[in-house]
Specification:
The protein is an all-alpha fold and about 60 residues long. The protein has helices at about 1-10, 25-35, 50-55.
Amino acid sequence: MQELEQRLAGLGCDKINLLIEPENGAVQAFYEKQGFSRDELIFMEKWITPAQTSAKGV
């Protein structure tokens, strides 16, 4: 993670945002240990083709 953060900072990236499923507590805990903190943002989506509605995350 440190290497990734250093590379991104070198490219001018100031911030990393993650999208994690609410029920995935293990991943949340992992990223909290990496220094990430929870932010109360709302992620919105709209499927516009029926084929994508059955494949979550596509």
